[in-house]
Amino acid sequence: MAGPRFCVVVRTQGRRPAGLRQALESLEDQEYSNFGVVVVVHGDGGVLADVEQQLGEWSFEYEVCQCEGSGRAAPLNLGFENADGDYLCFLDDDDLAKPDWLSTFAETDAEVKKSDDQAHVILRAQCHVQDWATDGSYEPLRATSELLRVFDDTFDLLKHLCDNSTPICTLAYPLERIRELDISFDETLPVLEDWYFLMSAACQMPVLSIPKRTSIYRRLDHGNSFNEHSNNEWQVARERVIAMLDRQRVILPKGSASRIAEARFALGGTTSYKAVNTLKLLGSIRQISKRLLRRLGLRR
Asked: Using CA atoms, how far apart are residues 104 and 267, in angstroms rounded to an integer?
């Protein structure tokens, strides 16, 4: 089949067998067929054996890898290491891909290549959020809300230096370019590993926003990173991400200089906040981030 080859990394701890099957079924239903899957089982040999027994046969090519490292980032790095093709995508076992998930990425890639066949861009679609009830532990049982619009429709690099508004299932990374830049998930982060990976890449190459909702981020009422980690862990991780980004070079998109100079940022797509008249463009990411957060009322 013509078009780019996608590698989809599916991360699982074996605690959601039904959720994993639903995620894989959503890949089985893809309109676009030029892709392979790397299922990374984060657990010991017993967990690996259970998952392998549950997997069965699928129409797409897939391989299974075992990861025994600690932390959320280790299985993502292992999947990344074993990936091949043109684009790298991620789908956790509590996410769902709509049938046009990969075809939308492929169509957008074709449009990009028409203008520059050597271009390297991160493709970023939109997603729906849906609340799900679990069995009291990890397994999603039923949806408890309509499909919701929660995350920003477009990618804003400056806003993303403050907080993440892009779920990992909405992205397709150019695999070769990511490897050339030596980007990886930081395995010392307990959470926000996907935000750091995204920003490490987005600070070096453009992110192209696609106005289409092609995946479902299932927000579980139990057994997810939000209720398994304390507010302090999230805050410390956030500060560490900003500190690490502070040591990197940042390529700003067009129009950023005037936005920084006026410190105007759209929040929620409707309201503008004006801070100081000028900010020194040579100021660090950390300094800019702290000042913006204070102006936005998110930090004292």
From this structure: 27
Query: How far is residue 120's CA from residue 87's CA, in Å, rounded to a whole number?
Result: 10
| Residue 72 sits in the same domain as residue 151 | yes
For 212, other C-beta atoms within 10 Å of its C-beta total 16
231-245 and 285-295 are packed helices; what angle lies between their axes, rounded to 10 degrees?
Answer: 130
Q: Could you list the residue range(s) of the whole structural domain that residue 284 is in?
A: 256-295
Please give the model's pTM, rounded to 2 decimal places.
Answer: 0.86
- Taking only the tens place, the pLDDT of each residue in 30-84 is 999 999 999 999 999 999 999 999 898 999 999 999 998 889 999 999 999 999 9
- Judgement on whether residues 290 and 203 belong to the same structural domain of the protein: no
| In-domain check, residue 1 | no
The answer as to whether 219 is a domain residue is: yes
Task: Tell whether 177 and 210 lie within a shared domain.
Answer: yes
Q: Is residue 262 part of a domain?
A: yes
> What does the alpha-carbon distance between residue 172 and residue 208 come to, in Å, rounded to a whole number?
10
CA separation for the pair 112, 124 (Å, rounded): 13
The runs of H, that is alpha helices, within the chain are 17-28, 45-55, 73-81, 101-115, 157-160, 175-180, 193-202, 225-228, 231-245, 256-262, 285-295
Straight-line distance from the first to the last Cα atom of the chain, in angstroms, rounded to the nearest whole number: 55
